[in-house]
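Encode chain A's predicted structure.
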Amino acid sequence: MLSTGQTNWVAIDLEPGYYVALCFITDPESGAPHAMLGMIELFEVV
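Encoded structure for chain A:
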């Protein structure tokens, strides 16, 4: 778990293509998963 303002990097080996990253950590104020609040990122591996 990271504190606010911190960054974490993960190296993974993916085949070329399109992927999506989602965050399912629950927001303490709304109770909604971060993905439902917009923490979703589409990215391409070339």
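The chain is about 0% helix and 25% strand.
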